[in-house]
């Protein structure tokens, strides 16, 4: 005669309790592992905290700066920027870069895109851009301001760069950070009223992230 083995409610309760303990241990182990990984990433980030890139304006050439009406400007500016990654162990991905030129807080060219690129540790890159403004609206005082600069012999031009960058540490890549660059160029502006006007003196730019 075969024996029938039945587990009492007490046995089932013990089984349920053990399953609950197992799930709890699994949760604690997973949480500990996740916390360790996050702490390691944070530690690496703090040790290798990236220094923001450095930009400088190497050359500016104004090929056109003519009013086609009282408040409409046609302009053409050729420039060369120098981008430097000062970090020894952090690379940089540059995305969505836009460049424009302004004069006395007035935008005189349209936004021009620079193709995305990757910058290795302590690498330096030359970036060229052709900025154009066709029928660009300006203030009625624009012509008067330009003639005043012509009398003083110099014209101050501001180059603005906006974009997004990502930091790269080994195989880890950060989220996107917005950056803004402002460069001021002093261009000689003598008695000859027509461009081209050029400046080849390196100008350090301010960078904000």
TrEMBL record:
The chain crosses the membrane at residues 26-48. GO terms for biological process: defense response to other organism. The keyword Transmembrane helix applies. The keyword Transmembrane helix applies. It is found in: Membrane. GO terms for cellular component: plasma membrane; plasmodesma. It is a single-pass membrane protein. Its main location: membrane. Keywords: Membrane, Transmembrane, Transmembrane helix. Pfam families: LEA_2. Residues 81-183 form the Late embryogenesis abundant protein LEA-2 subgroup domain. This is Late embryogenesis abundant protein LEA-2 subgroup domain-containing protein. The lineage of its organism: Eukaryota, Viridiplantae, Streptophyta, Embryophyta, Tracheophyta.
